[in-house]
């Protein structure tokens, strides 16, 4: 590997750099990413080299030398990172499928007879969170955006007394965000939880205290209504019984 790195470094040192591009790229996990090199005239190309620096890993290299039609690799063991096609036809790099561990910097270095050209990508892998919304007690709901990358943002409609916390998952870069919201004494029936994330937004709704206040009346008012209805029914039964008794006497 040392010989490969030395070979690349010597070639890049001979020529003065001319152009350097930087791009921030966000890619959804489990999809395919294709990273292209700077556009140059292919007959002037001498060497194409990719330098890859992933999070918490040593850099690795892949290079193509045009005059000998030779490709070399140094310390690159991830088989999901390959040339997009034949490097003598297209020196682009592909990552397929993208995993969380592919966060990092990818730099294409092209050495030509006219100078050096660079294109550096800062690749950020997006993981959509799993969103849930539940009621934990009367007038209280919990919205959770679990295992997302980066951390999601949570908002409520209508607004209440809310507390939002983050629970990091050490090792894979994902984060769980949980928001607990209370609407005590406000007689709120329906609430919505909106989760904003770079991988896509999602909104869930829930009916609070379902089955407890379906009529929208407090418990004492409901009891009064039932008593009134029972009293009216009793009066009707007495009235019908009285009429029946009168008709029976008339028949005699």
From TrEMBL:
Keyword match Membrane: yes
Membrane topology, as annotated: Single-pass type I membrane protein
Pfam families: C2-set_2 (PF08205), V-set (PF07686)
Cellular component aspect of the GO annotation: external side of plasma membrane
GO molecular function: signaling receptor activity
InterPro entries: CD200R (IPR040012), CD80_C2-set (IPR013162), Ig-like_dom (IPR007110), Ig-like_dom_sf (IPR036179), Ig-like_fold (IPR013783), Ig_V-set (IPR013106)
Cleavable signal peptide: 1-17
Record localization: Membrane
PANTHER family, per the entry: CELL SURFACE GLYCOPROTEIN CD200 RECEPTOR 2, CELL SURFACE GLYCOPROTEIN OX2 RECEPTOR PRECURSOR
UniProt protein name: Ig-like domain-containing protein
Organism: Bos mutus grunniens
Species classification: Eukaryota, Metazoa, Chordata, Craniata, Vertebrata
